[in-house]
Write the structure tokens for this entry.
Amino acid sequence: MRTFAEPEAVLPPDAESIMEEALLEEGPPDVKGVRTMTAQELRFQRRITALFTVGPLIGVVAAVIFLWGWGISGLDLSLFLGFYVLTGLGVTVGFHRLFTHRSFETSTPVRAVLATAGSMSVQGSVIDWVATHRRHHAYADEYGDPHSPHLVEEQGFRGVLRGLWHAHIGWFLRPQRTVTSRWAPDLEREPVMVGITKVFPWLVLASFFLPPAIALALTGSWGAALTAFVWGSLVRIFLLHHVTWSINSICHFFGKQPFETKDESTNNWPLSVISFGESWHNNHHAFPTSARHGLLRGQLDPTWGVIRILEGLRLVTRVRLPKPGKIARTWAGEPKTLAR
Ligand SMILES: [Zn+2]
Ligand SMILES: [Zn+2]
């Protein structure tokens, strides 16, 4: 496990106890493009995090109770899957492979659709998400990485649990905020991205209320609207949240490392289908600008499949892939067979 020497904590004069505590835990932000939130911002951030993590969790509990009694209706299952795929691809094709890493190019309308769909995953606005993720790659598993599981001081099993908790959810509760003008100036110059970032709270509302509205329109039943809200909104948002966060926690801790990288990223096959190919995370850290993450034979990468389809429809161009020679030079051990 990596550790870091804790720098002397410097507390702002107006810091409140909640803030002092967090600063003492993490030390002052001495990395580029990070600022410390005010106590008020931190309080707001923590409340929002609690609302959007505990709320969907309540939905999951409700869904278990519904399932126990009546099972899941075809409509609820369709809404759950439909919105999971739509918002999930918004994150993987849009937020991650296009906006963060520019692994392909596309038109403004397609960029707008992807940014809107990704925003509806309720994981922050497109510009914030991209800025945070670029910082993650810049400092991967070093001090300055917003969500590495390897930066806790504590050793042993407790240290492992604390590190995984921090990487999964705990980092939302810290006072360090990624400065978007430093990490995503390209998106801040793009009027469409700025507009979609401004309406982010409305897209969150739409993400919660569209599934029940569709169910109500189709059936005229408030009961159907309620179960659609549980499955299509709460359970779906809960699942996608935890799958995405698992890339930060599990995929920097458990799994294989076929490539030589400076960080602790891993490939984790059980998460590959549900994360749409994002869990080939060691491949991704080795070749961040590759539009394909499942580079080796047998590695399922549904996001890559979608990018290929969009390319076939001529909606995307200049798709970037690493050269086979470069892949071969980056093996950590035995050569593997590349995906075709
Ligand atoms: Zn990573
Ligand atoms: Zn990435």
